[in-house]
Amino acid sequence: MTAPTPLRPDGAARDAERTIAAHADVLRLIVGDSHVLTGPDLPVRYTQDLWGSDRVGVASVVVRPGTPEEVALVLRYCHDQRQPVVVQGGMTGLVSGGVPAADEVVLSTERLTSVGAVDGAAGTVSAGAGVTLAALQEHAAAHGLMVPIDLASKDSATIGGCVATNAGGVNVVGYGMTRSHVRSLQVALCDGTLLELSTDLVKDNAGYDLKQLFIGSEGTLGVVTSAVLALRPAPTGRTGAFCAVADVDAALRLLGALRSRMPGALTAFEVVWSDAYAVLDGTGVRLPLPQGHPLYVLAECQTTRPDDEAAFFACLEELSGELLDSAVASSPADLKAFWQARERIPSEVLRMQPLFGFDVSVPARELTDCLAGIGERLREEWPGVRLLVFGHLGDDNVHIAVATGERTRERKAEVEHIVYRAVSACGGSISAEHGIGFEKRAFLGYTRSAGELELMRTLKAALDPRGVLNRGRVLPWDTEEER
User: Fold this and answer.
1) What pTM value is reported for the model?
2) Cis peptide bond prior to 294, omega within 30° of 0
3) Separation of alpha carbons 399 and 357, rounded Å
4) Spatial strand order in the sheet of 356-361
């Protein structure tokens, strides 16, 4: 595996480090001495994504505000000084959006951990940007409610990060993306202005819904300091099955049948192609089904009515002629084992280095042709290439891991263009749930039109004219644009 190259252009980086280190004394006056970290040996969590990437940052100064007001003061100071800031949450992203350059101050939201009381009547809860998703899930569960968002990285992923990236996860097929659950936001703008965006009301159509600008903007337009999220009643139970099918069409027939027989009950519909399932061999993970089938499906439904479980079994029986094999969860332990197998796949895939990973959306009916086209084009350049595919078929999102067989990452851009060109031709998106950050910025034109990109640049210039916030993420930033 080729080691990533740190973002440290020798002379320029040293000058930048000295410049922003000079701001440290002022930042200490705002947040306290112990909450401004400096030096060359800061923890790696401030310099690289959770899963690692080609980009390793330099965290010269890390400031950790403890209140929204402190966030606002830090931003006001940095804006006045024209000092770039990169905002960090749990650093569980995959596109280097929070990875710092040497000339940036790191603003970590990790201390914004206040959690409000659950409003049982409204079904809402307020949480600071630094609250982890797991902590908020536990808080809601104590009241018989649930946070509809669920991620494999929930122990580290923060609410602010979920909002800033419009996080998806395994429950999108049943509950939707993070955007669907945000009632209101508190946001700090680049100049330190604190705004309360929208209200906690279910219906509020008084002008523009400004909070939507910041959901999914990856910290480029403002810093989310807290959010009010809508909760759902916790289901009384769950059931699920792990099935083998011949192809995507058979999987889609199963998906349609479950939605028809159990409207509103389907919460997850995961699909794993055979090559990706094969990485579980030798891991000690309990395999729900034997290896060798073309495609595997993990379907989960919530059971809130007495006949839900019977309807689930009836659906599987109805399609038994199409199922090559199946294992039905007869207990919560069985269902947990199914998920352990599914969630182990990404970490095992990542062992195959060098590896090029893609998080894309493709219309489900186009997926088979899209993957075939990607494979054919890649094999022209790398005859021994391997494609390992898995994802959330119920919401059109698949993860494609490409191992070309080469020992370097020098041709990374070629692989990316092949994959993104095919995805675009099929009407898909280059980013399903992990955003753009630095890693996908050059390919955004495959998904967004010239007019859309121009409007995005207009919004960035209006809300952050000096390019202080997350400079160069999502959109390039020309220093000549600063005003």
Assistant:
1) 0.90
2) no
3) 7
4) 325-328, 237-245, 295-303, 266-273, 386-392, 397-403, 356-361
pLDDT tens, residue by residue, 343-365 = 999 989 988 888 999 999 999 99
- C-alpha of 3 from chain center: 24
Q: Shortest CA distance to 240 belongs to which of 169, 327, 319?
A: 327
Alpha carbon distances (Å) from 328 to 238, 394, 426: 12, 19, 34
C-alpha distance from residue 69 to each of 75, 85, 87, 210, 223 (Å): 10, 17, 16, 20, 12
CA distances from 343 to 104, 331, 340, 399 (A): 34, 19, 5, 13
- List, for residues 249-299, the tens digit of each pLDDT value: 999 999 999 999 888 899 999 999 999 999 999 999 999 999 999 999 999
Coil, strand or helix at 124: strand
Distance CA 235, CA 145 (A): 8
Distance CA 86, CA 102 (A): 11
How far apart CA 418 and CA 187 sit, in angstroms, is: 38
